[in-house]
Structures are given as C-alpha cells and as structure tokens.
Write a structure and sequence with these properties.
The protein is 52% helix and 5% strand. The protein is mostly helical and 81 residues long. The protein starts with a strand and ends in a 21-residue tail after the last helix.
Length: 81
Amino acid sequence: MSDTTETVTLTRAEYEPLIERLEEAEDLAAVAAAEAREAALGKEKARADYLPIELVRPTAQGRWRSPRSRSGCPLLRPLHQ
C-alpha cells in the first residue's frame, strides 16, 4: 500500500479482502434488519410481500416459469436472455 496526504493505493491482493469483508458486513446487516422486522411485526406479516419460493428458486438458477410474459414483471425476466 502506498499513500499520500490525499490518496491511498492498494494492490488487488489488499483490495479484494476488504471488499469481501464489506460485503459480508452488508449481508449480516441485512439479515439482522430482516430478523428485527420479523420480531417487530411477526413472521407472517413481515414476509407477506415476499416473492414465493416457487418464483425465486428458478429465477436464481437462471430459469423462469411464470404465466406472465417476459415483458411483464422485470423480477421474473431471466438475468441473461
């Protein structure tokens, strides 16, 4: 690592672990927020607007099966067409 009074330069080997730690912290914060919301509202009410797993799993796997057309909801469109 090198630095001046205004900049810091990291190698990729130094940068990548920092990004991984940041992403892990963001993930943990999102889980904590979801758990706090569920505790405050109750699990059923907190999850009322979640997408059903039947839509999430195929979408995450790069497939989709929905009665909607591909031009419908953008969340149901495949990631790569």
